[in-house]
Design a protein that fits this description.
The protein is mostly helical and 143 residues long. It has six helices and no strands.
Amino acid sequence: MNLSVYFIGIFSVFCYAGLSALSKKVLSGIPVFAYISITMIILALFSGVASVFYEKDFSLVKLTMPTWGGMALASMINFIGFAAYLYAIERMPITHYQLMYILSPVIGGIVAYLLLNEPFKPQALVGLALMAAGLFVAIRDWA
């Protein structure tokens, strides 16, 4: 087991968890779709520079039509998910959103099973139900 990969994963979690608070703060003066487009342009520039320096053997010509279609679908899903995420965090406490994100590993596992035939055990669905119940308890206003 390569522990450095897990440390990078933890770092990624910290970055994305902090991104919610930062996005909510910045969104106070910017419309949602403008925010998405500006951040994606900046991200594309960073990614393009990184690709030039670190992926010298990459060529767009090598990409197949199914790959382009998959990237287009991923882009649409990312756009819809990002727009829904920004809409949600503008209207709810960040802690509630982050608690809902706890469902992500099981949902990701289900999608990986369906798309990639990765192993998935039925008891994960029981775990999903338990997490959903815990989420309900955590974010419900009991007053």
